[in-house]
Amino acid sequence: MSDLKKIPCTIVTGFLGAGKTTLVRHLLENAGGRRIAVLVNEFGDLGFDGSFIEGCGIEGCTKEDIVELPNGCICCTVADDFVPALNTLLNRPNPPEHILIETSGLALPKPLVRAFNWPDIRSRVTVDGVIAVVDGPAVASGAFADDPDALAAQRAADASVDHENPLEEVFEDQLLCADLIILNKTDQMQAGDKGKVLAEIEEHLPRAVKVIETAHGKVDPTVLLGMGAAVEADLDARPSHHETAEDHDHDDFDSVAIPVDPVATPEALVARVERAAEAAGVLRIKGFAPVDGKPMRLVVQGVGQRVAHHFDRPWKAGEARDGRMVVIGLKGFDVKAVEAALRAG
């Protein structure tokens, strides 16, 4: 089967909270009638992002078009989880015209791309392109290095220095595999910060890769789909700190799902998330909760000290209005302090 007959797959990668799910939703909302399926991988006990997309209410986007791979890293479980899920989509009577794969924020794209060379799928699908979504304000604040200034000084003193910060390694590996980089949340950045982040991204790249600046993941689908990169045949041009899935694990990170009671106002839950985010080692908090007297589900996401919220959809008939928040942090972060903050009245 020629590449022209293969079903194209686009991999959307990016660090925790960068805006991958928002970008995917925007793509689905502007698909122009194209049949698109989505594979969503979430690191943690609650597959929130799959629920966020599935409940989008987009015409033509059904539950069957969203395949969720929770409780693991897609780049580490290609044989057990990813390949069977992909085969399920390919074997449908009416297979999708394009497949979007949203990786977890801690996943590395290169081991996933390598799976497209597996014998049972390589003749049927191709990686159309890898898109790396970057949280501009987070990078500007040095969120991917414990001490950005010290790290820069160390690099200047020793060009052969290797990375010891797992956050920075994941972030850099995602950039190194990208065909296109989306600098997201630029509406929250000053011009000087944008220049700083663009320079840092360029420093990581061994080859020319286009960077698009945007806010809220709003990018023309014609720019994102149809790259024709055939990435699975171009792996040598994409270096990585972790060349195989065996080199990559998540021993540096923990995740926990915490029940959240109904809240009186959105601001009340935002205040709780802000307090919880102050706990040392917390990287991301994301989830939803019911609000007293409101028919819609409140979604809240915190990355660092920045917390955003919105109502995403009505609660379904018969659906338990149970609030839950997923917290991802560095190994050993203070879960009890986070729980206390999220449950405090």
Automatic annotation (TrEMBL):
Task: Give the record's GO biological process terms.
Answer: cobalamin biosynthetic process
Q: Could you tell me one molecular function GO term of this UniProt entry?
A: hydrolase activity
Give the UniProt entry's GO cellular component terms. cytoplasm
Keyword tags: Chaperone, Hydrolase, Nucleotide-binding
- Which catalytic reaction applies to this protein? GTP + H2O = GDP + phosphate + H(+)
Q: Which residues cross the membrane?
A: none
All residue ranges annotated as the CobW C-terminal domain in the record: 253-344
Q: What does this protein do?
A: Zinc chaperone that directly transfers zinc cofactor to target proteins, thereby activating them. Zinc is transferred from the CXCC motif in the GTPase domain to the zinc binding site in target proteins in a process requiring GTP hydrolysis.
Hey, which family's this protein in?
A: Belongs to the SIMIBI class G3E GTPase family. ZNG1 subfamily.
Q: What is the protein's given name?
A: Cobalamin biosynthesis protein CobW
- Origin organism is Microvirga ossetica
